[in-house]
Amino acid sequence: MKDAFGTPQSLLILGGTSEIGLAIARRMIARRARTVWLAGRPSPELEHAADSLRTLGADVRTVPFDALDPAPHAEVLGKVFTEGDIDMVLLAFGVLGDQANDEGDPPAAVRVAQTNYTGAVSAGLICAAALQNQGHGSLVVLSSVAGERARRTNFIYGSSKAGLDAFAQGLGDALYGTGVHVMVVRPGFVRTRMTSGMPDAPLATTPEAVATAVELGLRRRSETVWVPGALRVVMTALRHTPRSLFRRLPL
Amino acid sequence: MNQGGLLWANARVCVSFFDDTRLITHFGESIGHCKNVGISGDTVLAMSPDAPSAPADPAQPHTPVSTNTPQSHTAETHGDEDDPFVSISGWGRTAPTTARVLRPRTAAEAAAVVQGWGARGGIARGLGRAYGDAAQNAGGCVLDMTGLARIHTIDGQAGTVVCDAGVSLHRLMEVLLPLGWFVPVSPGTRQVTVGGALGADIHGKNHHASGSFSRHVESLELLTANGEVQTLRPGSDLFDATTGGMGLTGVILSATVRLHRVETSLMSVDTERAADLDELLARLTTDDHRYRYSVAWIDLLARGKALGRSVLTRGEHAPLTALPSRARHQPLDFRPGRLPAPPAQLPRGLLNRTTVGLFNEFWYRRAPRSRTTELQPLTRFFHPLDAVPHWNRIYGGDGFVQYQFVVGHGQEEALRSIIQRIARRGCPSFLAVLKRFGTSDPGWLSFPMPGWTLALDIPAGLAGLGSFLDELDEEVATAGGRIYLAKDSRLRPELLDVMYPRLPDFRALRAHLDPQGVFTSDLSRRLAL
Hints:
The complex is a heterodimer.
Chain A: E1 10-14, H1 19-31, E2 35-40, H2 44-54, E3 59-64, H3 73-82, E4 88-91, H4 99-102, H5 106-134, E5 137-142, H6 155-174, E6 180-187, H7 207-220, E7 224-227, H8 231-239, H9 243-248
Helix pairs in contact in A: 1-7, 3-5, 5-6
Chain B: H1 3-13, E1 37-40, E2 43-46, H2 70-77, E3 85-88, E4 97-102, H3 107-115, E5 122-125, E6 141-144, E7 151-155, E8 160-164, H4 169-176, E9 181-182, H5 194-199, H6 207-210, E10 217-223, E11 229-232, H7 237-242, E12 251-258, E13 260-261, E14 266-274, H8 277-287, E15 293-298, E16 310-317, H9 353-366, E17 370-377, H10 378-382, E18 400-408, H11 412-425, E19 433-437, E20 451-459, H12 465-478, E21 482-483, H13 494-499, H14 503-513, H15 522-527
Parallel strand pairs in B: 4-6, 5-6
Antiparallel strand pairs in B: 1-2, 3-4, 7-8, 8-12, 9-13, 10-11, 10-12, 14-16, 14-17, 15-16, 15-19, 18-20, 18-21, 19-20
Helix pairs in contact in B: 2-3
C-alpha cells in the first residue's frame, strides 16, 4: 500500500532497463519499496538492472515483456498482479528512433510507433484493469515534451509520444474515482543512453530529477508532471506559436 | 467484459453529491433510508438517497446495501461485479482508496455480508476518525457500522450500558448525561463509535487514572471470520487481541460498557502555564494524580529557553455544589455548540510556520498563568475541535499526518530530543498535546504504556516530511517507545515488530482464526499486520 505521502511499497516497471525507470526505482527503494518487478526483453542488461536494485535491499524479480508483441501481455502482466498488489506501475519503455533514417525506412518508423504507442496501449489497459481490481495504485506514464507539439526534426518519435500522452490522459479520466491514479510525466531532454551523443537541449535534466518529480507528483496525486517544471510555461508558449513561425524555429 | 466498458462503468458510478445536512444526524437511530453511502475523511457522501441510485442503469438493478431485508441483501451482495465503489480516506485525507461500502442494519445482516464479501476481504468502519488507512480496504469491502446504532439497555444501578458498536460517543453522551452518567474514557472527539473505540483501544485525558477504553468493557460481541458471534470477556486472548486490534480479528457488534457517575455536565478546570519542558514534566509528575483528567497543550514551534512551553489543563467533573445556584436546576444540560464548517476546497499551505507561530504565541499568552476551579462545559474541555465540523479541511487537498508516539518513564531525554528536532525543523503544528500515561493496557496492540505521549498534526505537504518522521520513528523505537496505529499512515513496517512485542501473538491468532484474510484493511496490508 502507498503511505500518506504516496510512496509505493511495490513497483512494476515496464521497460526494466530504462535509465529513468531505474532511477525512479532506486528512489522508491530508498523510501518504502520492497518489491520490484522489472519487465523487459530477457537480456543480460535486464538481469544486471535487477542485480543493481537487489544490492539496495529490494526483492527484485524480472518478467519477459516485449512492447512489440502485445499478444502475451495479458498473461505475463496478469501473473505479476496475482503475486500481490502493485502500488505503482511505471510505463517506462520507449525508443527514440533515428528520424533522418526512419523517414526513408517506413518499417523502422512503424517500430518506433508500435513500441511507444501501441505497446503502451496494450500494457496500459491491462495494468489499468488490474489496478482497478485492487482498488488502488498509480499508473505513471513516461511521456515526453516531444509529444506536446510535433517538431520537424523529431516528428515520428513525437507523434508516438503524442498518442501515448493522449491515451494516458484519457485513461486517467476514465479511471477517475476508481482509486487508480494515472500520472503523465513529461520530461524534457534527459541525459541518458538514449540521448548520448546528442548536444544538450535547453532545460536538459537528469533521471534523478525525473525521480524527484515523480515522487512529488505521487504525493500530490498530480495528473501531469513536467520535468523540469519550467517546461510547463515554455511548452505553453510553444503550443500557441503560429505554425508558420513554429516551422522556422531552430528546434 | 471489455476493458473500456469496465472503466467507464466505474467512472460513472462515482458521481455523487454532497449532502451536508445529513452529517451530524447521520448516526443514532434516526437515520433515513440512505441506499448507498460513501465515506471519505472529510465528509459522508450520500449518493442519491431514496432517489434511483446513482447509476440509473438497468444493467445494475441492485445496490449492495440493503436497508431492511437481510435475505435480499445477501442475494445482492454475492458476486455482483457492478457494485458501486467509493473513494475512502481517513481523517487525515491522505492515501484514498476505493472499496464497496456496505451498511448493515442488524447483526444478522452484518454476518451475511461478511460471509460473502470476496477475496479482498473487508473491514469495519465507524465514523472515520482514524487518521490513516485503518478503516479502508482497497478493492474490497468496507462495513459502515453506523447503521448498527441502537442503545439496548442502560442499567442505572450498576452504571452500565449495552449498545451496538455503531453508537457514537456523542450519542451516548446525549442519552447518558441527563441520567447522570458519562463515558468512562473520552478521546479528543465525540465522533467515534464504540466499536472504533475498542478497535483502536482509545485513551483519553484520564489514562493515568483510568486506563484505556477497553478496561471499562465488561463484555463484547465479536463476529468472527467463520460467521460465528462470540461473546468475549476481559482476560481472554481474543478479547485482548480485539481491543486495539484495529478491527482485524472480526467485527465488534456490541459491547457492555461501565460508566462513570457525574453530578453535572460541567468540568472544574485548573489551568496553568509551564514556561519550558522541564517545568511541564515536573508538574505532570508531581501532581497529575490529584486530577482525573490531565493534558498539556504544547507549543512545538518554541525553541531555545522556551522549548516545550505549554499550557496545562487539568480537571474533574464539577460537583453539584460547585455550580452557581441558577445553574443548579439543570446541572446535566448537554448542548454542544457548532460553528460553521470550513469550505470544502481550501488551498494547501494555509497552515504554515507563520500562521501557526502566531496562533501558538496567542494561545500561550491567552492562557492564564494560573487559574483554578474554572467551570467549563464538558465539550469545551474534552472536544473543542468538535465545534468545527470538517476541521480537517483546513489542511487543504494535501491532507495532514498525525504523529503520536509514546516513550516510557526514564526516556525523558529521548522526548526532549524529539521535541527539539520538531522545533528546529519548524513543523507547523498547532494541535500538539503531551500527556502522561498510566499503566499499560492488556490489549496486545494497545498503544499506551507508562510514560509520555506526544501527538501532533503536520501538513502532509511539508517537504521532506516522510524522511523526517522516519528518523523520529527510529528514535522512538530506540527509546523503547511506539507509535499509535489508529493515527498512523506512514510507518516503516519493519519497525512495528520492535514497537509491539505482542505482534507475533497477534499474527498467529489471526492466522489461526482468519487464515483467508476475511478481515483486511489498507493498514494491515501496508504494515503486514
